[in-house]
């Protein structure tokens, strides 16, 4: 069968095209509902630039691993200072764009308030970098000590998707805590796309945190995780329900995700929903579905959860 050759005599013409254009324009102007589309704010945050910012911050935080291969101990101070100065300038511009995108102060393309706030936020973030580095050091150590497959301490830093996701999260969380719109979520979604690990920037996570394997892990916005917690692949810390406002829309920021106390291990495929507390030192078995809190030192398996349902709720 011969292929049919199509001949083009110029631009596409169709009498219904104008109606399609009008419908698309209307949809653009009316979304999101109740808020006029911010036309004129052309300097939107850039995912590409933010991806570079996080890569540069990672090299600053771990220069012996992601910096130049010939970096010497004598040159590390110069390297960190030079690269940090550049990356903070890039970050400040992205923060400015994020603030402008959410700005309500008149001309959102030239807002002095947003300009000033971007500088203050960036300086505050820079002061938090040593604390971020300290936390990431505990995370890397926890990964090495918690995984018998890790042959040297450097391996988790170089290779583990869990540590990549947590690095993104620790950066995004500080910006989230500083009230920056949009940028923290972009940073967390960059990690999500790369690793398959979805951590909302609002989640509060203590030190020595280890995600083993990692793919499919979900940690919701209001989750609180203590020290020395270990999660395996496919774990969900999610919401069971959330209150609605008078218009039937979810109330934002309501505490709806689990609190996981210190020294808890949650095995692969477990789903923990709602504002419940997993007590210190507990372990939650693989594929467990849990919607009630457990006291410290609990060891919960599928069989226990099933028996608890059958006996009316006294088992856990």
Q: How is this structure best described in words?
A:
The structure is a single chain. The chain is globular. The model has no long low-confidence stretch (mean pLDDT 89). The protein is of the alpha/beta class and 316 residues long. Helix 2 packs antiparallel against helix 4, helix 2 packs across helix 8 and helix 5 runs antiparallel to helix 7. The protein has two domains: 154 residues, serine acetyltransferase, domain 1 (Orthogonal Bundle), CATH 1.10.3130; 101 residues, UDP N-Acetylglucosamine Acyltransferase, domain 1 (3 Solenoid), CATH 2.160.10. The strands form three sheets. It has a five-stranded parallel sheet. The protein is built from nine helices and 14 strands.
Features:
single chain; 316 residues; alpha/beta; serine acetyltransferase, domain 1; UDP N-Acetylglucosamine Acyltransferase, domain 1; 5-stranded parallel beta sheet; 9 helices; 14 strands; 9% strand
Instruction: Return the CATH architecture of the largest domain.
Output: Orthogonal Bundle
The ordered string of helix (H) and strand (E) elements is: HHHHHHHHEEEEEEEEEEEEEEH
Biggest β-sheet description: 5 strands, parallel
Which strand order do you get reading across the main beta sheet? 1-4-7-10-13
> How many β strands by DSSP?
14
Shape: globular
Strand-pairing-aware structural class: alpha/beta
Mean pLDDT: 89
Q: Proportion of β residues? A: 5-15%
Number of domains: 2
Characterize the quaternary organization of these chains. Answer: single chain
For the terminal residues, how far apart are their CA atoms?
69 Å
Assign a percent range to the helix content.
40-55%
């Amino acid at each position: 069968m011969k292929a049919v050759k199509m001949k083009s005599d110029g631009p596409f013409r169709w009498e219904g095209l104008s109606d399609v254009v009008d419908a698309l324009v209307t949809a653009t102007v009316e979304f999101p509902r109740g808020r006029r589309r911010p036309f004129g704010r052309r300097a939107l945050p850039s995912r590409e630039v933010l991806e570079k910012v996080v890569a540069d911050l990672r090299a600053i935080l771990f220069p012996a691993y992601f910096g130049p291969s010939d970096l010497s101990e004598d040159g590390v101070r110069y390297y960190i200072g030079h690269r940090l100065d550049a990356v903070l300038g890039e970050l400040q511009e992205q923060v400015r764009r994020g603030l402008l995108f959410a700005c309500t102060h008149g001309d959102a393309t030239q807002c002095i308030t947003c300009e000033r706030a971007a500088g203050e936020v960036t300086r505050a973030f820079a002061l938090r970098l040593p604390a971020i580095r300290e936390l990431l050091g505990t995370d890397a150590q926890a990964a090495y000590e918690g995984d018998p497959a890790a042959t040297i301490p450097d391996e988790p830093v170089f290779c583990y998707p869990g540590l990549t996701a947590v690095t993104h999260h620790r950066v995004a969380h500080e910006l989230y805590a500083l009230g920056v719109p949009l940028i923290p979520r972009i940073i967390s979604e960059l990690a999500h796309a790369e690793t398959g690990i979805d951590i909302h920037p609002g989640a509060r996570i203590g030190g020595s945190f280890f995600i083993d394997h990692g793919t499919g892990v979900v940690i919701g916005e209001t989750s609180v995780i203590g020290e020395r917690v270990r999660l395996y692949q496919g774990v969900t810390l999610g919401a069971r329900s959330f209150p609605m406002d008078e218009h039937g829309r979810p109330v934002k920021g309501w505490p709806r995700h689990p609190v996981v106390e210190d020294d808890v291990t949650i095995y692969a495929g477990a789903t923990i929903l709602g504002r419940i507390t997993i007590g210190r030192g507990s372990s939650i078995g693989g594929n467990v579905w849990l919607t009630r809190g457990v006291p410290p030192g609990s060891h919960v398996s599928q069989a226990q959860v099933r028996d608890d349902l059958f006996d009316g709720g006294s088992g856990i």
